[in-house]
Amino acid sequence: MDVTLKVALLVQDYLMTYVGDAGTAVSVKEHMQTCIFEKLKVYIDSNNTKLEKLEKIVMDQQQEISKLRRLIKASKFNMLPSADDVAAIQDGITDDPAIGDEDEDVYLGLSSFPHGDIACQRTISQHKCGVTSLAFSRGLIYAGAHDGSTKIFNADTGQMIKDLNGHQVSVWALAVCHETERFFSAGSDGVIKVWDWNFNQPNACVKTLTQHSGKIYGMVVSGNKLFSASSDKTVKVWDPITLENLATFTGHTDGVNNLIAIGDDKLATAGSDSTVKIWDVTTGTCIHTISCNSSEVLDVAFGDNMLFASTNDAVIHVYNINDNHSTAISTLAGHNWEVWQLEYTIGALFSASFDHTIKRWDVRNRMICNATLKGHQGKLDR
C-alpha cells in the first residue's frame, strides 16, 4: 500500500475512533487544535494530486483493455478479419468507460426502465478526499466529503459553484428545502448546519443546530419539516423556517442509519437494532416495526407501495406495505459487500455497495438485476 494511503487511512481511523466516543462540535474543535495528524495535511494533499494522475492513467488503460475485449468478442472468433470487418466492429464500440461488456463495466439486460441505457456523463473530481453524501436539486449537485466540506456543482457543466467548509469531520447527510431556499448538512460532529442559497455571501451558514448527541447519518425534507436520523437512537423533527426542534422520535434501541419519507404523513427509519420502523409523523408514534433477520439495517427506500431495506449482510429485503402492515416479497442478493445506499425511481431500484458497484434492479420484472455499473475505484458508502 502506498505510504500516502497508509497515512490517510491512519488519520481517518484515528478521527473516526475519537469522534465515535465524543461526537460534539466543541470536543472535536479542541481535539483538532492539538491533533498531530493536522501537520500531515499538506503532505497528504500533495500526494493525493499525484494519485489522481495515476488513477487517470489506470482508468485510460482499463478503458482500452475493455475496448479490445469487446473487439475480440464482436469478431465472433474470426481469426483473420478483413480491414473492413475491423472498422465495422470498431464503429459499434463506445469510448464511454461506463458502458462495456458483462465482465468489465456494465451489463444491460431486458428492462422496463423507461430512461434507456445508463452511461457515465461526467466525472467530477474537485474533492481531495472521499465523497460521503450527495443531494440533487434544481440542476445542482451537493456533495459532502470526509474533510467536512460541502461542494456545489452545476450538474450540466460539472463546474463547481461553491465550496463550503462548516464541518471539521465527515459530512454524512445533505437535504434541500426549496420553500426556505436553504439546504442542510450534517455528519460525524453531531450538528446540523443550515445554509442559505445566497451564494454571494462569503459565509452562508445561517445557524448550527446542536440538539443531537451523536453522529447524524441521514436527513430528509418532507411535508414542510426536516427530519434527521442519528446514532443517538433518535429521529428529530425540525421546522425548516424557524429551525425549532418540534419533536423527537424514540423507539430504536441502537443508532438510526437513515430514513425515507412515505408520503407526507409517514416516515421509515433504518436502525442498527436490525429493524425498520414506520412512524406517523403527526403523532410521532411508531405504527409498525419490521425485523430484518438480526442484521443491521443500513438504508431504506420506498416506491410502488414497496419498502426496500438493505442490511449489513449484503442483502436487500423487499416488503409490500399496505395499511401499516408489511409482507415480505423478496430478497435481492448480488452484491459482494454491504449495501449502504438505496434509491428508487419509476420501475427501478438502484443500490450502491462497498464492493465498488451500483446495481439496477427491475422491480416490475421478477426483481432481476439488469445492470451492474462499474467505474468507481473506491467503496460506495453512506
Automatic annotation (TrEMBL):
Signal peptide start and end residues: none
GO cellular component terms given for this protein: transferase complex
Entry superkingdom: Eukaryota
Start-end of each WD repeat: 164-196, 209-248, 249-289, 332-365
InterPro entries membership: WD40/YVTN_repeat-like_dom_sf, WD40_PAC1, WD40_repeat_CS, WD40_repeat_dom_sf, WD40_rpt, WDR54_beta_prop
Residues in coiled coil: 44-71
Residue intervals of the WD repeat-containing protein 54 beta-propeller domain: 126-226
Pfam families: WD40, WDR54
UniProt xrefs under SMART domains: WD40 (SM00320)
Keyword Flavoprotein listed: no
CDD domains attached to this UniProt entry: WD40
Keyword Lipid biosynthesis recorded: no
PROSITE patterns listed in its UniProt record: WD_REPEATS_1, WD_REPEATS_2, WD_REPEATS_REGION
Alphabetically ordered keywords of this record: Coiled coil, Repeat, WD repeat
The protein's name: 4665_t:CDS:1
Organism lineage string: Eukaryota, Fungi, Fungi incertae sedis, Mucoromycota, Glomeromycotina
